[in-house]
Amino acid sequence: MDKTWNKSIVKEDARAKQTKLAREKTQQNHPQPGSSSQVPSVFLWEEDIETGFLLKKAVSQNKAQHIWQDYPNNQHCYESTTNKWDICEALDPEPEKVMHFRGGNPLPTGDTSHDKGTQCKV
Q: Where is there biased composition of kind Basic and acidic residues (predicted)?
């Protein structure tokens, strides 16, 4: 009876490891979360102004899709065991920020220091 129970645990551990590795492979390029039930949960860590502590807040799938690109990849942290993403500016407090504009040059007229593309690094 003990041997059967031990084999069952080994099989579950192997299955859990396969699941974890598959999740890590899927998430390795920081894909924007989708809307299916299989997507990872997303949590946003924000500083409490009064205490200075970081507070972890669950983010809806819809909101995650909207804020995902506001944070660079080095501010995303994936946990494959629990299938969740943490977004936290404290992971890299001073990254090179990228602002997205929906058309044209966001710089004042006559400023030609950037191309007229859709991204402007600040």
A: 1-27, 112-122
Is the pTM higher than 0.70? The answer reads: no
- Give residues with Cβ within 8 angstroms of 37, minimum separation 6: none
Residue 78: closest CA among 64, 97, 96, 99: 64
Report the distance separating Cα 94 and Cα 49, nearest Å: 19
| Distance between CA atoms of residues 116 and 1, nearest Å | 71
Q: Any residues with CB less than 8 A from the CB of 30 and at least 6 apart, and which?
A: 73, 76, 78
- Give the pLDDT confidence score for residue 18 in this predicted structure: 86
Residues near 108 by beta carbon (within 8 Å), at least 6 away in sequence: none
Per-residue pLDDT of 17-51, as tens digits, reads 888 888 888 888 888 777 666 789 999 999 999 99
